[in-house]
Amino acid sequence: MTFALDPRLERDTLFAGDLILSRVLVMNDSRWPWAILVPRRENLTEIIDLPAAERAILMEEIASLSQALRDLAEPQKINVAALGNIVSQLHVHVVARYEKDPAWPGPVFGVGTAVPYPEEEGRAFVARLAQKLGTA
Question: pTM of the predicted model, to two decimals?
Answer without folding.
Answer: 0.96
